[in-house]
Amino acid sequence: MAEAILKVKNLSKHFVIRKSFLSSKTIIKAVDNISFEVKKGEILGLIGESGSGKTTTGNLILKLLKNDNGSLFFNNINITDMEEKQMRSLRKEIQIIFQHTHGTLDPKMTIGELLLEPLKIHRIVSDCEYDNEVGRLLEMVGLSKSNKEKFPHQLSGGQRQRVGIARAIATRPKFIVCDEPVSALDVSVQGQILNLLLELKKSLDLTYLFISHDLKVIKYICNRIAVMYKGQIVEIGDRDEVLNNPQNEYTQNLIESII
Ligand SMILES: Nc1ncnc2c1ncn2[C@@H]1O[C@H](COP(=O)(O)OP(=O)(O)OP(=O)(O)O)[C@@H](O)[C@H]1O
After folding, report:
1. How many CB atoms lie within 10 A of CB 21?
2. Cα distance between residue 165 and residue 96, in whole Å
3. What are phi and psi of 252, to 5 degrees?
4. CB hemisphere CA count around 83 (13 angstroms)
5. CA dist., res. 95 & res. 104, Å (int)
6. Which intervals hold domain ABC transporter (predicted)?
7. What is the DSSP string of 113-175?
8. How far does the centroid of ligand 1 lie from the alpha carbon of residue 61, in Å?
9. How far apart are CA 88 and CA 136, in angstroms?
10. Domains along the chain?
């Protein structure tokens, strides 16, 4: 059996909110004591309705958010409380693809500049190789090199997501959190992006945690499925087992709702 690339143990993140100055505090258990592993080379789907805690889980793994409890292991290294300086070399190995590219692709930068950014930050290639590497990345995601001079608004939604994917693979990661990467796209384009992710996984030997609220997408791309409900993982298992023989009532309802 493949080794785990990521281990999540008893992870929690609670948000304290106060709707107004006078109202009492409310605690939202966005992620509530979850544990799971992602094995090398697999695509683990994380599914659940809106607000179930999927994005918070992804952000905790990326350490974009600080957890309240629990621990995270990447390749058996405990990264839970690792300082940013130490995390730096690991950062390039763990990447994220977001749902919306408008938050991540600076509209004032050309596609070439956007791809140069991660290459420079993480010193992936030497200065003289930058231009070639940008062209190579564009080709890997199915875009022609001529797109280098364009700005994000000159591309279609699908093309922009390809640039988002190119930025993620620029640092030669081993593990990518794909957070609803096709949800903002037309159905006709969704399949193309999913197939691109599958091709890249194979050619670059990647592992994905694939977050989606769409069971059809999860069914298409994932090997295993974890079902999240109200901050907890209520079921996890091989894709066909979970889909054909769901044990949890919430999973059963989720599956029935799309049949
Ligand atoms: N920064 C925050 N402050 C307060 N509450 C938050 C914050 N981020 C998330 N939440 C709350 O935590 C819960 C989980 O949110 P999260 O975005 O992780 O869910 P999700 O399953 O990814 O939903 P969606 O598919 O709609 O993005 C929700 O109730 C959300 O409102």
Report:
1. 5
2. 9
3. -60, -45
4. 2
5. 13
6. 6-255
7. HHHHHHHHHTT-S-GGGHHHHHHHHHHHTT--GGGGG--GGGS-HHHHHHHHHHHHHHT--SE
8. 15
9. 24
10. 4-93+173-258 (3.40.50.300), 108-170 (no CATH)
With cut-offs at 50, 70 and 90, classify the pLDDT of residue 258. low
Segment 24-48, tens digit of pLDDT: 888 999 999 999 999 999 999 999 9
Q: What is the pLDDT of residue 87?
A: 86
How far, CA to CA in Å, does 135 sit from each of 116, 131, 143, 252?
Answer: 10, 6, 9, 46
Return the residue whose CA atom lies nearest to atom 3 of ligand 1.
15
The dihedrals phi and psi of 5, each to the nearest 5 degrees, come to -90, -30
Q: How does pLDDT run across 122-172, given as a tens digit for each residue?
A: 889 888 899 999 999 999 999 999 999 999 999 999 999 999 999 999 999
CA-nearest residue for atom 1, ligand 1, is 15
Among 15, 19, 100, 182, residue to substitute to test ligand 1 (most atoms within 8 Å of Cβ): 15
Distances from the Cα of 94 to the Cαs of 150, 158, 201, in angstroms? 27, 23, 14
- Say what the pTM is: 0.93
